[in-house]
């Protein structure tokens, strides 16, 4: 069922108009279309950006000294907030996703490969804020469980705000679900979406 | 103050006319007074932190002119019916901590009852009349150094909306509370040509003032400009203060945004800053040494963000 909501944000200064819209979008019944009245340029620009970031198609028309912003295409079927096409990110704001798909790095000698991977994961923080997601799949999930040689490091990354994901199917396959000590359990849909959103995906293993 | 006759005398070295950071009055051949005042409503929830930020912000104008702040007076508007007195006490304590660190004496103040809490200081500093560092004076080829990351206005807007993470609140608070004293001392050792502190007009607004009527252009390497965490993200989803849009409208005609540069960056570059960093010009050969000194002194986000060039017109080229 299509829902429509009208909001009056006149007389409000930033960030109140955006917060009014945000509340409306977080209400029990999420509107599929929305009209917002604003009376200043900053509010018009900010509300437009906010609705676009939530997947709406946005138009605004002048109404005397005010503007009416109309937004359509929200709610079910809208792309995820971050899936909206956006300009190329500036340097320093790239999103790098690292996928660890094994317990060793490279091929040739697995003992060496394991050492290399441990060293790699300990050094990973040098990427700085561009490191956006760290995902463990297949044998890689063994690094997220009790006894992992990099558990402390991974837990420290997580405390510092890095989102670490471990493949749930893989944990189950190795019967390690109960032993996971770091990261959130994830599924293939999350992984596919994250790969799409990342500016760069690095796969190891 | 258009149309009003501004009282002045021949000892006023820098007055209202040049949009400089503070006024300067010549006392003798060796001594001039720098005077400045600033106050505002709370921008963070923690009153002690608010006090520190307000003091660092008020002192900054003196540092930006190359002077040494000496005395300060509190300015307080407080709703005693609405807020506990402890809030005021904590705010003043925060301000005093910063004054102590800066070696500045608090010699008085004035408070009134008001509906909305406001705090700030008037500050007086000393400078040699011939060593005043103005915001005009950039030379062709000068490199521009910025000592604090940008985005306090955007982050503060997001804080009002309850969206900023604790980590971001902590980062922005520390940046705003940081004194510009050390940066000013290091800057003084590099044959500096001009300086300002980044406040209400944002980086590009202040740069526009620095090149106004000089005929010079600046080229900003946007990848080098330090930004507070999340500032760009919050700008993208609509948490830009009205002042940033006003700054952009006022000075936007000077901006030449090169292809491939994220236009949202402009909002961060025009974002009004509270207690922003120093922005100064120094010779290219001094840049590495100055940056090393700044970083060694703990000013780790300092960066060389661009240079003064001849583009045949005044322009802010964002590359």
UniProtKB/TrEMBL annotation, chain A:
Domain of life: Bacteria
CDD domains: SirA_like_N (cd03421)
Gene3D superfamilies: TusA-like domain
Organism: Desulfofustis glycolicus DSM 9705
Residue span(s) of domain UPF0033: 6-69
InterPro entries: DsrEFH-like, Se_metab_YedF, TusA-like, TusA-like_sf
Protein name: Selenium metabolism protein YedF
UniProtKB/TrEMBL annotation, chain B:
Cofactor: Mg(2+)
Keyword Cytoplasm included in the entry's annotation: no
This enzyme's EC code(s): 2.7.9.3
Listed GO CC annotations: cytoplasm
Cofactor note (record): Binds 1 Mg(2+) ion per monomer.
Keyword Cell cycle among UniProt keywords: no
Gene source species: Desulfofustis glycolicus DSM 9705
Lineage per the UniProt record: Bacteria, Pseudomonadati, Thermodesulfobacteriota, Desulfobulbia, Desulfobulbales
Chain ranges of the PurM-like C-terminal domain: 141-317
Residues annotated as binding ATP: 18-20, 38, 61, 109-111
Residues bound to Mg(2+): 21, 61, 197
Active site, UniProt feature: 2
Record's protein name: Selenide, water dikinase
GO biological process terms held by the UniProt record: selenocysteine biosynthetic process
Top EC class for this record: transferase
Domain annotation PurM-like N-terminal: ranges: 20-126
Complex and partners: Homodimer.
